[in-house]
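Board notes (copied after class):
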Amino acid sequence: MGALASWVVMAAVLGQSSAPYVRSRVTPGDASTQCLYWTQSRVTWQQSTVGNPKMTNHTEFDAISRSFQSWQNIFATCGNLSLVEGPRVDSRTVGYNRTGDNINLTLFRARGCRDVVPAGDACFTQDTCANTYDCWDDSDGTIAITLTTYDERTGVVYDSDISFNAARFNFTTGNGGPCGIVATPDCVETDVQNTATHEVGHFVGLDHTQAQGSTMNPSAPPGETSKRTIDSGSQSFVCAAYPKGSASQPCIPLTNPGGSGNSGGGCATASGGLAALPLLAAASLLARRRRGAR
């Protein structure tokens, strides 16, 4: 197994595409590289039993289930993939396990790594703090992040995990108006279903788009719930990339589609997240990528 390397890529929001949908690529934004996509007909995903420790009524479980179901409803109409919820699990580990079983896990991180990890801990350089200390190790301004592991030659996805930043954001599941200075029981601050529906888009292979009203628009102001409803552009992605009755579609024809991971293709991970950006702000998104030999 090769050593892992990591680097950080800053992408200006205003420089992103405004197409109805944008597929995730092996190299983000590079149309000469392969798209990311699942090839199996059934993908099981699971929620951590912990849920969000900061929510006492634990309505977040149902909100996340509704998000996956909204995508599944589209796949049932025109797609070839089934997103199936498995039983809740105690695991708090995200990322791909090359030697054992893998879980497509959804969890909340309720503590920031810089708040709980001792200064100088090796996990900072090894990029392992999140799993070691069960903490949020990405940008404070990122609401949630989806970590996807895929074959860098074919773009085929092996594993995908969604983490919510409960260390910095107050997640809600209400249906009322935005929370004000005095919060009401049903008010909306950072909506779980709004966030999860966006992240499931990354889970199935979508990147961000600046298209107005898109589920995959990278900003989410406080009180937003519009991303709960999947827009027509994102729906068309499902029909095109995962056509019912046919194989899932890469962006670049595979020269050796039957090749195995031992043929020289590497294993890589990519992350995409949702940022708490003002609607008109020319802000930047933080994306992290890791690569390693498989």
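Comment from the instructor: The helical segments are 60-78, 113-116, 123-126, 129-133, 192-203, 232-241. The beta strands are 5-12, 42-47, 82-85, 104-109, 142-151, 157-165, 171-172, 190-191, 267-275, 284-292.
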